[in-house]
TrEMBL record:
This is Anti-ECFsigma factor, ChrR. Residues 9-111 form the ChrR-like cupin domain. Pfam families: Cupin_7. It comes from Rubrimonas cliftonensis.
């Protein structure tokens, strides 16, 4: 299966208006944003767990990264409420569930094979720091290494946000909205720019809270 699999091209998706598709596990549905592969795939997805649903125990050979958008995600490491950002590196294993239901934004099989850095951050408890030289932008750092930079940015109403993306860029709207290249991005809308791209966005009247990752696409060609 290939969905938005050419990483040399701009890609976008608006998950909140996309029908849910069933997964192999009862009570777990998903909205696919990009994907290369079948059930074990390099994938970027929004996943919804119904109350009392779960996935079987499994190992993430290529790593797992997720942000909790709604509800509380759970596994052996504890409860992860809205705003939790988690990185489970390659070889990690867990049994995910959601007693009360939840929705997460998740990226699979996208880690460096040697990465063993686990991350647990409750971003909802963090106060954004003003971004140097970027008016109306606040930043909550989530993860940074030689390969990529992951953060949440808050954009003030009407803020103009320009970012060069020599290594590519992904953005997921958490709340509020923005426009880019004449396209409107509301909550759960996703944008991917290829290496060498540039983000030129304007925040909407409510501002925007946006998950952003940069740098990670520089070694990818069309899949």
């Amino acid at each position: 299966m290939k969905i938005n699999a050419d990483f040399t091209q701009r890609a976008s998706a608006h998950a909140a208006t996309t029908p849910w598709a069933a997964s192999p596990m009862a009570g777990v549905e998903r909205r696919m944003l990009d994907r290369v592969g079948e059930e074990v795939a390099r994938a970027t997805t929004i996943v919804r767990f119904a109350p009392n649903s779960s996935f079987s125990a499994h190992t993430h050979g290529g790593g797992e990264e997720y942000l909790v958008l709604e509800g509380v995600f759970q596994d052996e490491d504890g409860d992860f409420p809205v705003g939790s950002y988690v990185r489970n590196p390659p070889t990690s294993r867990h049994t995910p569930s959601a007693a009360e239901g939840c929705t997460i934004f998740v990226k699979l099989c996208q880690f460096d094979p040697d990465d063993r850095c686990a991350v647990r951050i409750e971003s909802a408890a963090q106060t954004p720091a003003p971004a140097e030289g970027r008016r109306g932008v606040g930043v909550i750092p989530l993860h940074r290494d030689a390969r990529e930079d992951v953060r949440i940015e808050t954009w003030a109403p009407g803020a103009r946000v320009a970012l060069d993306a020599p290594g590519g860029l992904e953005a997921l709207t958490i709340s509020g909205g923005f426009s880019e290249s004449g396209e409107a991005f509301a909550a759960q809308s996703w944008l991917r720019l290829p290496p060498g791209g540039r983000l030129d966005a304007v925040a909407g009247p409510e501002g925007a809270r946006v998950w952003i990752k940069t740098g990670h696409l520089k070694d990818l060609a069309a899949a």
